[in-house]
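[step 3/7] fold_predict: job queued, chain A
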Amino acid sequence: MQSNNTMDNQFTNLFSKINFDQILGFIYFLIPTIIAVWTVYYIRKSRFYYVERTSIKLHDDIVKNIPDLTIKYKDSEINENLIFFRGTILFKSHTDIKKEDIDQEITIYSPDRNAIWKHFEITKASDDFQPTFTIRDNKVTIDRSMLKINDYIIFAGLLDSKNVNLFISHRIFNLVPKSIKLKESDLKYYKQSGIFMTLILVTLFSIKLYFNYKSKEWERKRIKDNKELAEVYKSVNVDLPPDIYDYETFFFKNNVKIKVKKLRDSFKNAKDQQIDIFNEKNLKVTDSLSKKYLRTKKDKDKIEVLNSIIDGFTKGLPIYRNPYAELERLGEKKLDTLIKTNKLKENILYTINDSIKLKFEKKVIPKKDSSSKNKKLSESPTKSLPKYRTFSDYVDIFMNFLGYLFIIILITITIYCWFMFVTLSRLLKIYQK
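[step 4/7] structure written:
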């Protein structure tokens, strides 16, 4: 029991140290890692590739477009569903396939169950590979044989089918059941898409680098200007000029200290309450007048009287001046004048009017022990992070995450286009040599 409690306490301490930023960083790391692992697994798997070289609907693509043209096959005119196929099946793997590994042979089939192969032939195969086949309705089965790496079969055939697609199936040990279908004509599209997506990524990356450079350049310039200004004042042994915000102002009346800020806020709250009461009364009077005079809208005189009364109440809102706020402004103006004329002295009473005097004292900023601060940070780093986030913070995080996903998607599409281009180019080289 004690060991279980200890384990629970360790897990509790571990999870208590994990914050939102660490979870978000882990997600940012996890997404591309999963994509990379899946891509490597996908590429290294042994499988068949089916490259479609030609797919022509003889009636729709040829006969229909040329007047008085007829095409016959075995003394019969072709129908609307007769399709001429030329394609290549290639085996890509790291090891050869043995006969005992084949449970079901390679089958070329149409998803249309009513389809019928009118003609099929193997026009070319890899060196020393002489496969045979059998035809049954919509399927052509390649007889059992040992397959070596990069073996291929080039076939041509006529298929009577309403479906223009062909698929490859098999049951072979340690081989992906589903083949990858490609088209020779897609080679240029993969290349164009890869170039286009690469240009987009380069453009976005260049814009990002430019703004980062400008931001760092501005920061360096700001630091440099501040250093140069400090060096100038240091060289002439002059301290940096004071500012009104470096001093605290104290007000006195008959040598008694006055809390002007507190009086200012109290006066403002009291006046705001009076205005709220006044507005509430005006609203009630306006509503009662509306109910009384707006029953008959045809009476223009009554409506004009009503509008004039309402305008009178609306314009009757009181406008007040906060004397204590005015007093603060006078104090700031006096301090600014003394600083500019270099006549400011601390702990001396300056007169504003006959009854009010004030004095200025430099604000004392307490120095923090950097060693103790570093010690606290090292002991509990999560304490230095903000405990709460506003809604706008989460909106910014969400938008940044969407931008991150957008870039990941662009990179994934770019890699896919180039991968398909390189793969198809290599396959073409195998059987076109």
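[step 5/7] annotate
The two ends are 72 Å apart (CA to CA).
The chain has nine helices and 15 strands.
exit 0
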